[in-house]
Amino acid sequence: MKILVIEDEYQLLKAMETFLLSEKYVVEKATTYQAAVEKVMLYDYDCILLDISLPGGSGLKILEEMKKKGKSGNIIIISAKNSLEDKITGLDLGADDYLTKPFHLPELHARIKAVLRRKQMDGKQILQLGNLSVDFVGRQAFVGHKLLKLNRKEFDMLTFFAANKNRLITKETLAEHVWGDSSDLADSFDFVYSQVKNLRKKLKDNASEVGIENIYGVGYKMTTMS
């Protein structure tokens, strides 16, 4: 899952990045208002951690711009300000939660998981698709009672496909979601093809009732096997 951290305080930014990477998230960063606006308008994220006070502008203004464009991103405001007015304004503009600095990183992680459960899975931790169970929080997947042995990227792809079952996912979107924004600099998508091929084989070999369909020249779709 991919998280954007919008924060200009270097030590806090580095601490959050290190912690989130250790929890197996893909992490992108923005340290100024302009850089943050560019990222949220160009890319999609599972969660956005948004500081209010930024060089060049306010995080609340970013929320306004996202609301105008119909963009959402499971947003948690992180701010040194503990103003009730800021909280109300942020929530009214589309933020999902508000965390006041200083905070403990495990608490931040708990807030992130709660937001993801609410938005992606209607509050559930485990998504059931036929005989396939995907535990988004525990980062495990089972076919029946058998554990699927997946590497990090395969699991990230599986969760993305599962959350978007029956929807066409382009190879560009999949690469951006799993490998981060730098994937658009790649000369080819061979790395995507290879990982999808491995994931598809593991699902098939374990008799999963869902599979990944190749939409030739465009991308992929997770469907129920007939």
The average pLDDT is 86
- Give the topology string: H per helix, E per strand: EHEHEEEHEHEHEEEEHEHHEE
Query: How does CATH name the architecture of the largest domain?
Result: 3-Layer(aba) Sandwich
Tally of helical runs: 8
Could you tell me the CATH topology label of the largest domain: Rossmann fold
Structural class: alpha/beta
Give the tally of structural domains.
2
The CATH homologous superfamily of the largest domain is named Response regulator
Distance between the termini: 29 Å
Rg over CA atoms, rounded to whole Å, is 18 Å
Low-confidence stretches: none
Shape: elongated
Our estimate of the beta-strand percent is: 15-25%
Helix content: 40-55%
Strand order of the largest sheet: 2-1-3-6-7
Biggest sheet character:
5 strands, parallel
Classified by CATH, the class of the largest domain is: Alpha Beta
Kindly state the number of beta strands: 14
